[in-house]
Amino acid sequence: MVDIHDLTRKLRRASDSKIVLLVSDGLGGLPLEPGGKTELEIASTPNFDALARRGVLGLSTPVLPGIAPGSGPGHLGLFGYDPLKYDIGRGVLEALGIDFDLGPDDVAVRANFCTVDADGRITDRRAGRIASEIGSKLCEKLDTIEISGVDVFVRHVKEYRAVIVFRAAGLGGNINDTDPQRTGVAPLDPVARDEASRATAKVCGEFIRQAAEVLKDDAPANLLTMRGIAKRPDIPTYEEVYGLRAAAIAVYPMYRGLARLVGMDVLDAGATLDDQMACLESVWDRYDFFFVHYKYTDSTGEDGNFDEKVARTEDLDAAVPRITALHPDVLVVTGDHSTPAKLKSHSWHPVPVLLSAETCRFDGCDSFGESQCLTGGLGQFEAKYLMMLALAHAGRLEKYGA
Amino acid sequence: MVDIHDLTRKLRRASDSKIVLLVSDGLGGLPLEPGGKTELEIASTPNFDALARRGVLGLSTPVLPGIAPGSGPGHLGLFGYDPLKYDIGRGVLEALGIDFDLGPDDVAVRANFCTVDADGRITDRRAGRIASEIGSKLCEKLDTIEISGVDVFVRHVKEYRAVIVFRAAGLGGNINDTDPQRTGVAPLDPVARDEASRATAKVCGEFIRQAAEVLKDDAPANLLTMRGIAKRPDIPTYEEVYGLRAAAIAVYPMYRGLARLVGMDVLDAGATLDDQMACLESVWDRYDFFFVHYKYTDSTGEDGNFDEKVARTEDLDAAVPRITALHPDVLVVTGDHSTPAKLKSHSWHPVPVLLSAETCRFDGCDSFGESQCLTGGLGQFEAKYLMMLALAHAGRLEKYGA
After folding, report:
1. How far is CA A92 from CA A62, A96, A138, A156, A263, in A?
2. A388 vs B69: CB contact, 8 Å cut-off?
3. What's chain B's average pLDDT?
4. ipTM of the complex
């Protein structure tokens, strides 16, 4: 199997063209009743529809048919990285999600406070879902733990959740979870699954030993379990593989972290879509590629709120004229996965894609929605190829072979 | 990743069926305006349309989404060879393009005459685009260069372009270009990029040393640069992988060379489509497979001449009755890539495919054009699978597994 980026490195061509990737998180949906329309189809989206008439539509498969991706693989695919090749551990994603700037030597751990009884058996895997204020204070205490030769960082996430980062050269990141996934038993020992991770397992064990001491009077949060112990994947940057100076305009930390992982400059826009558009306008001349992330089509889908997802889709559509006024050479509107309100969760359904450029072959589609996308000129394709299409339409790829 | 030919070798079955692959180079196009029609859609093609009604349509991706292929990878894909697996260097393609019969020990080089000043710095990378008569004479002089243990061939291509072939056992073909791609600097030294190519780099260096002597009074063509130094790929033949006796009826040398690379018999037809049809008729009984190549849908596209591409498409359509009169079991009409007149170049857009056989499942298409192909029964697929479809429809593949 060819590596996409071996190709793009070889074929990439300098250009002053500009690409906007507008990601409406969880964009794909489902009708509530057979024969009905999806959230995107019911939404009034005159601006998307105008783009659809000039561009091409299609449906992307984030990973493989039937696979519902998390935010990590979903975005990696959109960014042009094979989500089956680059594995982002849960610990890494959690660290990215709190804007922790993970280095190549860092091992990240998702930690859960838990309750253990006098015999060391877990009685509550979430420590009674302690309040965030309590979790935050406990993390400050744990952050003082010292382990010889290792920098230790403990950062609070929310309620009973935390991130631990161990920083030292030569630490592997392949260790089992210590969370036994049930109560009535003791946490598992951290065990290395490869030679390179033996030292890390010892560090984890030492941390747990000290944490038990630090937390001994803090019941119900008198211990913690570790999950998703991992290092960040060794992933090439946008600059290197595409020759793109890329900017991320995303509000939520996880998406900012994912963008940082591929070498995008993560900009400080405000929290609203208006703020994001203002940011886009202000940096337009300084970058070639703009990743704009919009969260609310996913969160409303997760809530199962069909009407609210429709409304939030319409909000996003209303922002489009500020993008098109900048005359990007390529504007892509899509999602990282589907989040149908009917399912209240990420799903495996193919994701609507709209690509607008001067070089599109007319496909007869006149509105942006799943049914139209099914007849669109892009067909159904793996999300990881979307970046190559965007680069091609932006005139940023030489031809392959003579 | 399965190798297609491991499958076809195992499954191929003897038959007296006949397959015609009619390649209209650069066939795919683009409308000039959003909502408009492509060259193929505007062309009046009653014969293609009749085939479309009886056959199936589809769109092929020559290499990968977004990748515009050169003629080499474009044709390899149509011939059923993974264009990412078999890499054809520029020197090889250039040698094929002048009907030079490259052997497995040959290293081919694309050479450009250039002008150097007294200090050895390039002042013109194309030697003032010298006339072909001059380039031809200089090549005759260079062809007398002798290098110990190596057969040296220098052949003129056109104007300032030539091909050099070094023939000797054990020469690797992985050497950098000596063309620095700019003026004001000396040509680069030939440097081996692997151990097996060290001897070749020395041969190249010795050739350049002697060439400088031979050409010293021939300014503006007083030196040459080397590009695309390569050996032909080790590629299995049509006979071996498909069991097909294959004939190529192509006018232009490059396509003749590509056909020779996969073991087709390259026939001497005349230069017109009528000549090609007469050739097809005359050898009909002697082969199983016929590759007929038509250049002008590409060259008119490269010229940006939309109307002329339409006219040349209609010319090709008019030749179809002479093919169908021979009653091929399978007739495929397609291109090796798209060459939209709007872009004046090869492009990445999917390529129209028409496959006509008695075994087609009706797909409701009634004319041959990109929009209809988008709804066709073949869907969108990688070009390398086209040959398997042709073999299947020709009754030339056993079933796979019991």
Report:
1. 20, 6, 21, 14, 16
2. no
3. 96
4. 0.90
pLDDT band at A1 (very low <50, low <70, confident <90, very high): low
On whether the CB atoms of residues B31 and B338 are closer than 8 A, the answer is no
Q: Give chain A's radius of gyration (CA, Å).
A: 23
What's residue B97's pLDDT?
84
Buried b (16+ CB within 10 A) or exposed e, B338-348: bbbbbbeebbb
B183-204 pLDDT, tens per residue? Answer: 999 999 999 999 999 999 999 9
d(CA B259, CA B86): 14
What is the C-alpha to C-alpha distance for residues A303 and A308, in angstroms, rounded to an integer?
Answer: 9
Q: Which residue of A has its CA nearest to B70?
A: A402
pLDDT for residue A99: 86
Contact criterion met (CB < 8 Å) for A359 and B343: yes
Chains A and B form CB pairs within 8 A to the count of 95
Cβ contact, residue pair B83, A400, below 8 Å: yes
Q: Output phi, psi for B303, to 5 deg.
A: -75, -10
Cβ atoms of A388 and A8 within 8 Å: the answer is: yes
In sequence order, what DSSP letters do the residues of A163-231 get, joined into one string? EEEEE-TT----B-----SSSSSPPPPP-BSSGGGHHHHHHHHHHHHHHHHHTTTSTTS-EEEEEEEEE
pLDDT at B81 over 90: yes
**pLDDT tens, residue by residue, B214-260:** 999 999 999 999 999 999 999 999 999 999 999 999 998 889 999 99
Structure tokens given for B308: 């002329």
- Residue B51 tokens read as 């085939």
- Contact state of B1 with A4 under an 8 Å Cβ cutoff: no
pLDDT in tens, B343-387: 999 999 999 999 999 999 999 999 999 999 999 999 999 999 999
Could you count the other beta carbons within 10 Å of the beta carbon of residue A305?
Answer: 16
Report pLDDT digits (tens) over B114-129: 999 999 999 999 999 9
Which amino acid makes up residue B213? E
- Residues B273-291 pLDDT 10s: 999 999 999 999 999 999 9
Task: Give phi and psi for A154, each to the nearest 5.
Answer: -120, 120
- Write the CA distances from B291 to A100, B14, B248, B387, integer angstroms: 59, 19, 5, 12
Give the three-class secondary structure for A86.
Answer: coil
* Sheet bearing A265-266, strands edge to edge: A265-266, A246-249, A289-294, A19-24, A330-334, A351-356, A56-61, A379-382
- Average pLDDT (A253-260) is 91
CA of B131 to nearest chain A CA: how many angstroms apart?
A: 24
Task: Indicate yes or no: CB of A397 within 8 angstroms of CB of B345.
Answer: no
| A379·B59 Cβ contact <8 A | yes
* CA angle centred on B230, ends B67 and B66, rounded to 5°: 0
User: Nearest residue of A to residue B342 by CA position?
Assistant: A359
> CB B303: neighbour CB atoms within 10 A?
13
Quote the minimal CA–CA distance from B359 to chain A in Å: 25
**Strand B265-266, strand B151-158: pairing:** unpaired
Tell me the pLDDT tens digit for each residue of A24-82.
999 999 999 999 999 999 999 999 999 999 999 999 999 999 999 999 999 999 999 99
* Angular region, A181: left φ>0, alpha ψ -120 to 50, beta rest: left
- Residue A90 CB contacts under 8 Å (≥ 6 apart), including other chains: A110, A227, A228, A230
Pair A63, A57: CB distance under 8 Å: no
Contacts for A307 with CB less than 8 Å, ≥ 6 apart = none
Do residues A279 and A98 lie in contact, with contact meaning Cβ atoms separated by under 8 Å?
no
- Strands A246-249 and A265-266, bridge-based pairing: parallel
Among residues A239, A241, A187, the alpha carbon closest in space to that of A215 is found at A187
